[in-house]
């Protein structure tokens, strides 16, 4: 896989693994990688959805039903992907869930699950696929968020998890760079996915978010954000920005907690009564799939 600028189609024939591939960023990313000639391994919790995604891809693909927090299951997936395709060149750790609402009223299990999927699941993904990436001198892209750059009220678990994966990925880059493995972090603001739409179903949360300073308060279309991610993968970028203005946030991130802190309490007080009624479980179809999977596993045990 070429470094620096891209010549021709650098993704042609490469094998890309995408977690959380059943919907949203993962689904569209798989489609765009496939169009560029990549063979795609889809990983997620919704086998029917994953099968449908695979059937719509342009080229060769396969799907695996697995929970990214389950090291044994993911190690099996990594071995089977290597056996199926012969190599792994690109891994995108995209799987994620979210919840919202006041921390003091939050569901402890849902709060912990956000950390497990977003942070621990990303680390498990990196751990099981790194041997193959070392062989191919490949590239690992960690999907993070604006939430890694700046905190926001009512999103304690999500912000903590995304700040965690950003730090993990930057640390990993320093460890594996001499082995030829590139590691990047992708930052996205509010993007039109089922996770964001699920959060917006709660009017108080939607209104509070829309009061964030421009341009952080609006929802952005999915397509252009994923195009930027694909371009970052082609360049093996250390930093990928799903929306143009996020790059500028890096230079002022040290000031952002104070700015958000000044914004948050005033607005939170205004919505306090309504926010206390916000459900604190996982949001969106992806969150519902995660909860179904855990119930099934629990019944088996």
UniProtKB/TrEMBL annotation:
InterPro entries hit by this protein: KR_dom, NAD(P)-bd_dom_sf, Sc_DH/Rdtase_CS, SDR_fam
Domain of life: Bacteria
Family to which this protein belongs: Belongs to the short-chain dehydrogenases/reductases (SDR) family.
Basic and acidic residues: compositionally biased ranges: 289-301
Domain Ketoreductase: residue ranges: 14-193
Transmembrane regions listed in the UniProt entry: none
Sorted UniProt keywords: Oxidoreductase
Classification via Pfam families: adh_short
Start and end residues of each stretch annotated as Disordered: 282-301
Native organism taxonomy: Bacteria, Bacillati, Actinomycetota, Actinomycetes, Kitasatosporales
Name of the molecule in the record: SDR family oxidoreductase
């Amino acid at each position: 896989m070429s470094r620096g600028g891209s010549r021709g189609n650098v993704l042609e024939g490469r094998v890309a693994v995408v977690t959380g591939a059943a919907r949203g960023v993962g689904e569209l990313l798989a489609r765009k990688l496939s169009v560029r000639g990549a063979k795609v391994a889809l990983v997620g919790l919704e086998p029917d959805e994953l099968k449908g995604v695979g059937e719509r891809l342009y080229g060769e693909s396969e799907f695996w039903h697995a929970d990214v927090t389950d090291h044994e299951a993911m190690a099996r997936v990594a071995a089977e992907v290597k056996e199926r395709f012969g190599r792994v060149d690109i891994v995108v750790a995209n799987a994620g869930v979210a919840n919202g609402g006041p921390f003091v009223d939050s569901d402890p299990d849902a709060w912990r699950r956000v950390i497990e999927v977003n942070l621990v699941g990303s680390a498990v993904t990196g751990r099981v696929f790194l041997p193959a990436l070392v062989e191919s001198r490949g590239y690992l892209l960690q999907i993070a968020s604006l939430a890694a750059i700046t905190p926001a009220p009512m999103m304690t678990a999500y912000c903590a998890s995304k700040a965690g994966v950003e730090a993990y990925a930057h640390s990993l880059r320093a460890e594996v760079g001499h082995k030829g493995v590139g590691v990047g972090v992708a930052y996205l603001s509010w993007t039109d996915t089922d996770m964001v739409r699920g959060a917006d179903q709660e009017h108080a949360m939607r209104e509070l978010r829309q009061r964030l300073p421009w341009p952080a308060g609006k929802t952005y279309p999915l397509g252009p954000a994923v195009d930027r991610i694909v371009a970052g993968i082609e360049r093996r970028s250390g930093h990928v920005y799903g929306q143009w203005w996020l790059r500028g946030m890096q230079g002022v991130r040290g000031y952002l907690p104070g700015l958000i802190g000044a914004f948050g309490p005033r607005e939170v007080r205004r919505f306090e009564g309504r926010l206390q009624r916000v459900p604190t479980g996982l949001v969106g179809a992806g969150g519902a799939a995660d909860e179904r999977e855990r119930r099934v596993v629990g019944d088996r045990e």
